[in-house]
Amino acid sequence: MTINIITNDADKAIVEFAGELDTVAAQGLAEKLSSVMTDAGKAITLDFSKLEYISSAGMRVLLQLNKNAIEKGGNVSITGMSEDILQIFQLVGFDKLFSINQ
Asked: If 0-12 CB within 10 Å is exposed, 13-18 middle and 19+ buried, where does residue 65 land?
């Protein structure tokens, strides 16, 4: 799992995910995103174009990121999501929580 913070300034953050966001990767995800989560009152874009898999543990971390952003007046959008991951998000209702841009 590779996570690249492309941009993280006062107005926006862009984070690129690549590989598999499984349970092991999710354990360190919150720490890797700490700088984004600390100042989450902005537009946060998660680029999933290179993400191959996401576990429930990974989804839980994204849920926390979204909660932090909303509490601080920001928002989280996801771009480049594969059809398989989109189906999972739809199945659990995450498509209602996040702005998803294909």
From this structure: buried
